[in-house]
Amino acid sequence: MEKEEDDHHHFNNSSSSSSSQIEKWCGHEFLYKFNGFWFTKTYLKTTQQVLQHFKPLPNDVILASFPKTGTTWLKALLHSIIHRHSPNSSDTLLLNHPQELIPSLETNLYVQNGNFIPTIIEDQNNKGGGTSSRILATHIPYQIIGDLLRSSSTCKIVYITRNPKDTLISLWHFLQKSGNVFASDPWELPSAVDQFCRGIVPFGSYYDHVLAYRDESRKKPEKVFFVTYEELKENPNGCVERIAEFLGCPFEGGEDQDLVGEIVKNCSFENLSGHEVNMSNEMPPSGFPLPYSSFFRRGEVGDHVNYLGEEMVRMIDDVTREKFHGGGFVYGV
Ligand code: PAP
To answer: Among 18, 69, 148, 187, which one is most buried in terms of CB atoms within 10 A?
Structure first.
């Protein structure tokens, strides 16, 4: 603990951020407030690296999301939509974990000794079969990365969100898998609900995260495409067609149209979770503390009912009504 506290002082003194608020999270982790959002120490540092060094290119496609809302699924879908005419595009999905195919700005840009390594982005995108569109993911809130993303007038953002209760349960499970990191002090469900409701989770508040991307998608529908996990489950073919249209590569009739169903099937939970690479217990080279297999669990809508008691549901629903419904977004209860 003393060491942690020393780290805080060192971190706060050496960081260029305005981070002053710190909250205990779970395991050895603390969360640091930066520009109104909460970050683990590592992600705060990498987010600052991204803000300093990342330059969106005109053809970039940015997949933005709050953690556990469908990022991996959308990574597979975007890759398949954009590279659908590349030779071996379906093999690529068979041999590569979606997290590897589409790098995350704040995870993959910052890998060795804290240095920014842009070539990693280039290398990873070349796996897709050589296209001028880079596809890059981020969990950084729009309130923080928005200026940067607006600096290219043509780069596009696809944002996915998910029911808050399922999002929290998915995150909670994800951390359970991280035995070594959190075993000493697990994230018990009552604290998880409490912290989630107060916005104190990595990249949180979830609600503020979702609302800012949603607002921007309403103001600039040509720039930001907003989709929910539940819509994708309900009508995957329709969503894939709309995403392709948004990206400027619509599916034409004939054979191209047949590809919609094929892409949906290739990227389904049932299909992807059965690939050897996605079942692997190997750790990603980025130093991320969980194995590749941890990105696939149940992949269902409404799984929270199996974990959250009545009171917990009430607590989350109250915040959802206040934050979402109060602002005109009737979703998530
Ligand atoms: P990330 O933000 O850390 O990258 P993300 O991929 O958003 O994680 O979330 C993982 C969730 O998506 C898991 O949900 P669950 O815990 O409720 O099961 C995972 O199972 C689910 N998931 C992964 N791939 C798919 C897919 N192809 N279809 C549907 N859900 C998926």
So the answer is: 69
Q: 92 Cβ partners below 8 Å, 6+ apart?
A: 79, 83, 86, 101, 127, 128, 129
296 alpha carbon to ligand 1 midpoint, in Å? 6
Predicted local distance difference test score (pLDDT) of residue 7: 43
Question: Which residue puts its alpha carbon closest to atom 31 of ligand 1?
Answer: 299
For 21-43, the pLDDT digits (tens) are 999 888 778 999 999 999 999 89
Distance between Cα 168 and ligand 1 center (Å):
12
Q: Which residues contact 8 (CB under 8 A, 6 or more apart)?
A: 22, 30
At residue 198, φ and ψ (nearest 5 deg) are -90, 0
Rounded average pLDDT over 140-164: 96
- If residue 137 lies in a helix (H) or strand (E), which one and from where to where? strand 135-138
Among residues 79, 83, 139, 275, the one annotated as catalytic is 139
Given a cut of 80, is residue 118 above it in pLDDT? no
Is residue 173 among the annotated active site residues?
no
The DSSP-derived string for 41-92 is HHHHHHHHHHHHH----TT-EEEEE-TTSSHHHHHHHHHHHHTTTSTTHHHH
Q: How does pLDDT run across 71-86, given as a tens digit for each residue? A: 999 999 999 999 998 8
Task: Sketch out the chain's domains with CATH numbers.
Answer: 59-327 (3.40.50.300)
